[in-house]
Design a protein that fits this description.
Layout (H helix, E strand, L loop, with lengths): L2 H14 L7 H18 L5 H9 L18 E11 L6 E2 L9 E7 L3 H18 L10 E8 L17 H10 L6 E5 L1 H9 L10
Antiparallel strand pairs: 1-2, 1-3, 1-4, 4-5
Helix pairs in contact: 1-2, 4-6
């Protein structure tokens, strides 16, 4: 395939995965295929092209309008996923490299409640693919979301800078900052959503 055609496919994959109306597993497939194309197109001998391609994965890098405003509003959210065996006492869920329980993401035009549902949808899809995890163990699941820019009173105490992405939600929680959205699934709801995660669409925009 000509290099220019491959570049067009890469940018199309980056744009399509921003669509909130597609199933999350398709979002992951677009990311996986796009990365393969990027590795083939962007060789180490052209670092400027690699940086341009890498920016295409970040919604915050989208082209601005002449006014200086971005075409879509973006929000930085921190998320944290907990589980419980009784719906009363909660602990952070077990994490893996492919299934993180906490992090920070830049999100386009999505409120905290909708984003919490999106994170849980992704989490359930990841659990469904993880053969080592027994998701039929009657666990409750909870996703808490913080809008980082609206958590200013709790940022970051005496720390010189923002914590690492996997620590931001934990830091805000530990310092008493109430989340901006909390989404909970009972064991019955969780089992249903995990089992059906391979065909459920992502939450609407």
């Amino acid at each position: 395939m000509p290099r220019g055609d491959a570049w067009l496919l890469l940018t199309a994959a980056q744009l399509r995965r921003r669509d909130f109306d597609i199933a999350y597993n398709l979002v992951e497939d677009l990311h996986r295929v796009g990365r393969v194309i990027q590795d083939a197109v962007c060789t180490p001998s052209d670092p400027d092209l690699y940086r341009l391609a890498e920016a295409g994965w970040n919604p915050a890098s989208d082209t601005a309008l002449a006014s200086g405003e971005h075409t879509q509003h973006t929000t930085r959210y921190a998320y944290l996923i907990d589980d419980s065996h009784n719906g009363d006492t909660w602990v952070e869920s077990s994490s893996t490299d492919d299934r993180p329980t906490a992090g920070v993401e830049q999100v386009h035009d999505l409120g905290p409640a909708d984003y919490a549902r999106r994170v849980l949808t992704r989490w359930f899809a990841q659990l469904h693919r993880d053969d080592s995890y027994d998701w039929q163990d009657d666990s409750w699941f909870r996703c808490s979301i913080w809008d980082i820019d609206h958590s200013m009173d709790y940022r970051w105490g005496r720390r010189p800078a923002e914590p690492a992405p996997e620590l931001v939600a934990r830091w805000l929680k530990a310092n008493g900052c109430a989340p901006h959205a909390v989404e909970v699934r009972t064991p019955t709801q969780a089992a249903r959503d995990i089992e059906g995660s391979h065909h459920h669409p992502a939450p609407a925009q």
